[in-house]
Design goal:
The chain contains three helices and 16 strands. With 267 residues, it is an alpha+beta fold. The strands form three sheets. Strands 3, 4, 5, 7, 8, 9, 10, 11, 12, 14, 15 and 16 form a twelve-stranded antiparallel β-sheet that branches. A two-stranded antiparallel ribbon has the order 1-2. A two-stranded antiparallel sheet has the order 6-13. The termini are far apart.
């Protein structure tokens, strides 16, 4: 005897011809059912391939309540500013908000950066921390914004955000409303990707500072021939440019991937 894959028990040798016919019919029916099932599944699997509309749909990481990026123009090949607006989900009072360790921004393919024109901040992190944003020339400032910073036992503070050209990249300076510098983050540029490491720091009670909300607007900079940021030279078939945000948090959160899109002009 052997086990039937459909749950029954059948003899290893069928001597009765009627039993043989019945078995043949059963196997034929089984093959027909499997063929019909596979025939229905294979087209469905093929249709599961990403389409332009699904690829360009906005997505939000589990840790985020919102995350949006956009250029300040829809025109391809043009000088542009840039806006980032993000916020993590709420955590209960007194619970550590996950600290970021790496900021990683991926702009639409074809985005060009050129920071060779305009002012430049050459101050060190120590000088910026000591002297505040005044350590950088006013002409080197290219962006500003605001946010909220979790500070453990001190609660959540409102903060100001400043962005300066610091060739070959940029530097973000986060200050309290009083002007005291709380964080300095150096951002490097590689093609259409911008990355920065966030140095860990400790607070009383074993807490670590963590951004809970962050808004930054970079203005158009540079010259007509050498803009600080230039949009991609073309608008894709989907009619939308896609931004990807890949911040890395302490474990167990790891990399939190979000995407946002904006319309662009075609033709």
């Amino acid at each position: 005897m052997f086990s039937d894959p459909f749950g029954g028990r059948v003899a290893s040798v069928q001597s009765n011809s009627s039993k043989e016919v019945s078995a043949m019919r059963r196997h034929h029916l089984t093959f027909l059912v499997l063929s019909l099932v596979l025939g229905a599944l294979l087209p469905a699997a093929a249709s599961a391939e990403p389409t332009s509309s699904s690829v360009d749909r906005d997505t939000l990481a589990p840790l985020y309540e919102k995350m949006n990026q956009r250029f300040t123009t829809r025109k391809p090949g043009a000088s542009t500013g840039w806006v980032f607006d993000g916020q993590v989900v709420d955590f209960p009072e007194g619970v550590q908000v996950p600290p970021q360790r790496v900021l990683h921004l991926v702009y639409p393919r074809g985005t060009k950066f050129d920071l060779t024109r305009g002012g430049n901040c050459t101050a060190s992190d120590e000088e910026i921390t000591t002297d505040g944003v005044a350590a950088c020339p006013s002409r080197s400032q290219i962006g500003a914004g605001n946010g909220t910073l979790f500070l453990g036992l001190l609660g959540t503070w409102k903060v100001n955000v400043y962005e300066f050209t610091a060739r070959p990249g940029v530097v973000l300076v986060i200050t309290a409303e009083s002007g005291t510098v709380l964080k300095v983050i150096r951002m490097s540029i590689d093609g259409n990707e911008v990355t920065g490491e966030v140095a860990p720091s400790s607070l009383p009670g074993g807490y670590q500072p963590a951004l809970t909300q962050f808004y930054l607007r970079s203005e158009k900079t540079g010259t007509a021939r050498h803009p600080g940021i230039r949009t991609p030279s073309t608008c894709p078939k989907s009619g939308r440019w896609k931004f990807t945000y890949l911040p890395e948090y302490v474990e167990p959160y790891g990399v939190q991937r979000s995407t946002s899109t904006m319309p662009c002009k075609r033709g």
